[in-house]
Amino acid sequence: MDDKHDKPLTLWEMLLSVLSAAFGVQSGKNRQRDFSRGKPSHFIIIGVLFTLVFVLVIIAVVKLVLHLAGV
Predict the structure, then answer these.
(1) What residues have CB less than 8 Å from 67, skipping those under 6 apart?
(2) Burial track 47-56 (b if 16+ CB lie within 10 A, e otherwise)
(3) Sign of the CA dihedral 35, 7, 41, 17?
(4) What is the pTM of this model?
(5) What is the DSSP letter of 7?
(6) I need a surface site. Which of 9, 22, 37, 70 has the fewest CB within 10 A?
(7) What average pLDDT score do residues 55-61 get?
(8) Which residues contact 39 (CB under 8 A, 6 or more apart)?
(9) DSSP codes of every residue in 23-54
(10) How big is the chain by its Cα radius of gyration, in Å?
(11) How far is residue 43's CA from residue 36's CA, in Å, rounded to a whole number?
(12) 3-state secondary structure at position 58
């Protein structure tokens, strides 16, 4: 096996995988790579952080829209 398949995933690769999976566009090739080279705990942590940031952004957008609407 070459070195590329033995190395753990980089933070950037994991972040892109989490974003792709969140929006439902994860490719089978990347999913296989994630299962073979990634650690579940890393994906869980990044997924929880992504969800938290996503929810906070949605709340901020709703508050901004309500403020601009004068409600």
Answers:
(1) none
(2) beeeeeeeee
(3) negative
(4) 0.77
(5) S
(6) 70
(7) 98
(8) 8
(9) TT---HHHHHHHHHH--HHHHHHHHHHHHHHH
(10) 17
(11) 13
(12) helix
Separation CA 33–CA 55 (nearest Å): 28
User: Hey, what are 19's tokens?
Assistant: 């974003």
Q: Which helix (H) or strand (E) covers residue 71, if one does?
A: none
What would the pLDDT profile of 12-28 be if each residue is shown by its tens digit? 999 999 999 888 898 88
First to last CA, the chain: 61
Length of the chain: 71
CB 71 within 8 A of CB 62: no
